[in-house]
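Action item from last meeting closed. Structure (376 res):
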C-alpha cells in the first residue's frame, strides 16, 4: 500500500463511526457493537462510498495485517432478520437509509410504485392500502425496511413479495456498478432470492406493480375465521390488512418490547414420502403444497410438501420453554425470544437444542430463517 493510500485510509477511518452500538438496529435487542458503521442517506452518500472503494480495500488489507483476520461489509436495514452470534462485529456495517415513495406509472388496471430502501415496510404497505391498491395487504405489519423485502422474498398469510416486485435497483458496493434486476433475474423462491447470494449488492429502491382491482387472499391462517367472528361478511382490502395486523398482534412478540426476529426457522420442505410417514404417526400434521420443488434431489413425480416448523417445534415440546434470558414464544413456537440482558450465544445454544430435538423426533432438519452474521 502506498503512503498516500494509507493516509486516505486513516482519514476515512477517522470520519467513520467506530465501535458503533447496534442495540437499536437488531430487533433481538442484543448489545452488539460494530467496528465501523456508515449510514447512507442519499445516492451521493452511496456514490461517495463507492468512489472510496479503494479505501475499503486498503482498510481490509490493513485490518487483516493488524488483526490476522479480514473484515467485510454487512448491509443492515431494520435488523429484524439478523443475529450477530458475537457481541462484537469485526466488520464494516453499511446502513442504507434512502427515503422516498414515487408513483411511476398508472393505467386502468395497475400502478407502478417505487419505494426507496430506507422506507419502513409496514408504513409503505399502509400507504398502498390507503390508495386502495391490491397486492401487499397480506404482508401488513412485517417489520423491517423496503430494501430488505426482496432479500428473503418476505411472505405471510399466503402472499409473497415476489408476486408484486417489478424490478429491484442495486448498487454493487465492490464494483460501484448499478444493476437493475427484473423479477425473473431476482431468482425468487421460498424465503430466498439472488440477493442472499451476492451480499455486496445494495438494494436502493424497489419498483412494485399493484392492482387497482384484485382478489383478496383469505384462505391462509386465520383470516377467514377472524372476519367471520367479527361479522365482516364482505371484506374490503382495508379489512384484510386490519385483520392481518390483528392476528399478528395476537401471535407475535411486539418489536421493541420482547426481542425476536419473528420466525427463527424456515418451514420444513419434505418429500411426499416423508410427509406420509409423519402423517401416519400424527394425523393432524398441517401441510401445504409447494408449487416449485426447492429440493433438487426430489423427482418430478414426488411433490414436495411444506410442514410448518412451528408445529414440529411445538410437538417436540418446546413451546413456552424459557432458559435464563431466552426462550420459545408461548403463542408461536417458531419464534425464539430474548427477554433482555442476555447474550447471542444463549439463542444459538437454544437453536441447536431445538434442531437436535426436532431431528430426533421427526427425522427432519430445520434451518434458520434468520441471517446469522459471523465476523470473518
Ligand atoms: C416480530 C417479527 C415478525 C416477522 N414476520 C415476518 C413475516 O411474517 N414474514 C417474513 O418474511 N419475515 C418476517 N420477519 C422477518 C423480517 O421482518 C423480514 O425479513 C424483513 O424483510 C427484514 O427487514 P430488515 O429491514 O429488518 O432487514 P435486516 O434484518 O436488516 O436484513 C435482513 C437481510 O437483508 C439484507 N439487507 C437488508 N437491507 C438490504 C438492502 N437495502 N440491500 C441489500 N441487502 C439488504 C441484510 O444484509 C440481511 O442479510 C419478522 C420479524 C419480526 C421481528
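Sequence:
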Amino acid at each position: 500500500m502506498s503512503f498516500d493510500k494509507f493516509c486516505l485510509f486513516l482519514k476515512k477511518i477517522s470520519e467513520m463511526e467506530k465501535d458503533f452500538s447496534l442495540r437499536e438496529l437488531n430487533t433481538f435487542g442484543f448489545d452488539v457493537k460494530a467496528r465501523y458503521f456508515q449510514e447512507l442517506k442519499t445516492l451521493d452518500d452511496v456514490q461517495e462510498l463507492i468512489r472510496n472503494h479503494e479505501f475499503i480495500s486498503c482498510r481490509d488489507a490493513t485490518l487483516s495485517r493488524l488483526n490476522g483476520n479480514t473484515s467485510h461489509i454487512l448491509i443492515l436495514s431494520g435488523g429484524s432478520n439478523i443475529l450477530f452470534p458475537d457481541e462484537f462485529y469485526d466488520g464494516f456495517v453499511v446502513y442504507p437509509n434512502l427515503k422516498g415513495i414515487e408513483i411511476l406509472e398508472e393505467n386502468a388496471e395497475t400502478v407502478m410504485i417505487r419505494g426507496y430502501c430506507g422506507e419502513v415496510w409496514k408504513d409503505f404497505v399502509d400507504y398502498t392500502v390507503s390508495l386502495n391498491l391490491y397486492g401487499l395487504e397480506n404482508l401488513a405489519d412485517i417489520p423491517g425496511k423496503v430494501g430488505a423485502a426482496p432479500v428473503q422474498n418476505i411472505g405471510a398469510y399466503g402472499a409473497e413479495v415476489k408476486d408484486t416486485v417489478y424490478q429491484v435497483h442495486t448498487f454493487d458496493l465492490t464494483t460501484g456498478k448499478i444493476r437493475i434486476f427484473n423479477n425473473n433475474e431476482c431468482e425468487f423462491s421460498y424465503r430466498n432470492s439472488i440477493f442472499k447470494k451476492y451480499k455486496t449488492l445494495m438494494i436502493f429502491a424497489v419498483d412494485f406493480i399493484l392492482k387497482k382491482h384484485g382478489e383478496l387472499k383469505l384462505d391462509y391462517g386465520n383470516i377467514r375465521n377472524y372476519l367471520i367472528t367479527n361479522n365482516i361478511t364482505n371484506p374490503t382490502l382495508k379489512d384484510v390488512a386490519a385483520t392481518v395486523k390483528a392476528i399478528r398482534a395476537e401471535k407475535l412478540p411486539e418489536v421493541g418490547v420482547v426481542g425476536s426476529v419473528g420466525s427463527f426457522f424456515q418451514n420444513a420442505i419434505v418429500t411426499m414420502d416423508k410427509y406420509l410417514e409423519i402423517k401416519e404417526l400424527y394425523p393432524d400434521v398441517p401441510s401445504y403444497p409447494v408449487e416449485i420443488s426447492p429440493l433438487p434431489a426430489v423427482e418430478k413425480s414426488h411433490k414436495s410438501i411444506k410442514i410448518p416448523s412451528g408445529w414440529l417445534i411445538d410437538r417436540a415440546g418446546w413451546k413456552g420453554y424459557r432458559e435464563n434470558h431466552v426462550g420459545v414464544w408461548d403463542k408461536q413456537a417458531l419464534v425464539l425470544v430474548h427477554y433482555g440482558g442476555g447474550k447471542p450465544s444463549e439463542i444459538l445454544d437454544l437453536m441447536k437444542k431445538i434442531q437436535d430435538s426436532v431431528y430426533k423426533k421427526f427425522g427432519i432438519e430445520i434451518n434458520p430463517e434468520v441471517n446469522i452474521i459471523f465476523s470473518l
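Note appended to the action item: The radius of gyration is 22 Å.
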